[in-house]
Amino acid sequence: MSEMRRVTAICNGTAIDHIPSGHALQVLKMLRLDVGRSNPISMVMNVPSGKMGRKDVLKIEDRELNQEELDRLALIAPKASVAIIRNYHVAEKRTIELGTELINIVRCSFSNCITQNPREPLPHKLKIISAEPMKIRCFYCGKNQNIDEIVDYII
Amino acid sequence: MGDLITMDDLTNEEILQVLDNARSLLPVAKGDVYLPLLQGKVLGNLFFENSTRTRMSFETAMKRLGGEVLNLSSIGSSVAKGETLYDTMQMVDGYADIAVIRHPNQGAAQYSADAVEIPILNGGDGAGNHPTQTMLDLFTIREAHGSLEGLNVMMVGDLRYGRTTHSLSHALVRFGAKITLVSPESLRMPDEIVSDLISHGGEINETEEMSLSIDSADVIYMTRIQKERFPDEDEYIQVAGIYKLTEDDLSGAKAGMIVMHPLPRVNELDASVDSTKHARYFQQAFNGVPTRMALLCRSLGVKIPKKVNK
Fold first, then answer.
1. What are the pLDDT digits (tens) for B42-67?
2. Where does the Aspartate carbamoyltransferase regulatory subunit C-terminal domain lie (chain A) (predicted)?
3. What's the whole-model pTM score?
4. Can you give the pLDDT at residue A5?
5. C-alpha distance from B86 to closest chain A C-alpha (Å)
6. Domain architecture of chain B: domains with CATH
7. Helix or strand or coil: residue A48?
8. How many domains does chain A have?
């Protein structure tokens, strides 16, 4: 059985395919879709994939993710494929881009970093040092960030 | 452009240029010649953490070049009232032409540089970087060995929180140094720094044993185990006093080997070393003056004459 048949097709919204297996919940958190939203969301986890062995898939109804949201996704699922669905058809395919820095997307996790003071007004800034393996460093204090915990520090 | 936050802000050529300039300025640093290159300029000396050498040598450097100094410390200023660093820096931007900042929080110098127009020199940010110390360390090493190329350098003590070793090791690997990092397991150099050093082609050896590398070293760089950086005193007690370099340890050392220390010292560097030909730490502390003079001029775009006559 194809993984796409495990959930019904959506009329309008966004489908995110090829999420690394077991990471769908993190993706929802990263996109801030995990709390306080009323959009119906379907999720399948650990389904077989020709490309990845196993993968997760998300379908978010009545919501077209914008580029800024997709760029957040790059931190967890840089190889995910994103389709914007309109009237049951793929209207647009969007690419995920991992830029060179993350501005006001994630906070530095280091407890002695100057940016820990919530009253300091400059934006949080992290640099992407490498994409594979993913290495992210605070622009200010220079500390490497733990990628597995990065969703806990999203802004 | 004139900021100095980490050693990445200077190319090797720029480092050597600053060191050449520092050497030219030696008679000015000693007070034998008055050279008011920075007359009319004001340095903001912003020390949110204790300092003896960095603060005083910056002040001396500025004054010997005819400039003025404004001092600010967290005690007795609005910082104590909860002012943000950003707001404090806006004031400094208006009052000074250049500022040196020491701050307990890592990243504070880069943050300040982003907050203002004037050049910012990092005088030590938490356990992060201390590039002006590195420049005076490099000056000391170059004066002793004639070059910075391919030296065998031992760094001993608190390499985890010791910002001087973080900046210095970054600079030395760019000149082909072999570095032996000597520390207890709990005070190892942070992984991201070690991996950076290796990716820059550095030959790095990590050990807990100090005595084995002394005889092959060109430089022994001792550091204090910094009580104030430990989150928990028990952890400090476990490692305090673990290394102590004495005159006897140096019996097999190379004749030209120098012992350095960013100071202050506690027990790790015995006073018996002071009278040996290897001791260079008090000279090193003085070298802060000509080096910081050269750095102030660089950041303010002021040219230094090649020869300074008495």
1. 999 999 988 889 999 999 999 999 99
2. 102-150
3. 0.89
4. 66
5. 6
6. 7-130+287-299 (3.40.50.1370), 131-285 (3.40.50.1370)
7. strand
8. 2
Asked if the model's pLDDT at residue B75 lies above 70, the reply is no
Half-sphere exposure of residue B223: CA atoms within 13 angstroms, side-chain side: 27
**Tokens read off for B80:** 């104590």
Q: What is the tens place of the pLDDT at every residue in B229-277?
A: 777 888 888 888 889 999 999 999 999 999 999 999 998 999 999 999 9
DSSP conformational letter for B54: H
Same-domain check for residues A13 and A35? yes
Question: Which token pair is B146?
Answer: 């004639």
Q: Which of B128, B161, B98 is nearest to A114 (CA)?
A: B128
For B114, the closest of A122, A141, A143 (CB atoms) is A122
A90 lies in the same domain as A105: no
Q: Give the dihedral sign, CA B73/B74/B80/B83.
A: positive
Q: Where would I find the beta strands (DSSP E) of chain A? A: 13-20, 41-49, 53-61, 81-86, 89-94, 101-103, 125-130, 135-138
B128 → closest Cβ in A119, A120, A141: A141
Phi and psi, residue B202, nearest 5°: -75, 145
The CA distances from residue A85 to A7, A15, A19, A26, A76, in Å, are 15, 7, 18, 22, 22
Beta strands in B212-306 (DSSP E): 219-222, 258-260
| Cβ-Cβ contacts under 8 Å, A101 against chain B | none
Instruction: Find the domain containing A29 and state its range.
Output: 3-94
Residue B167 has pLDDT above 60, yes or no: yes
User: Mean pLDDT, to the nearest integer, of A105-123?
Assistant: 95
Contact across the interface for A108 and B128, Cβ inside 8 Å? no
Length of chain B: 310
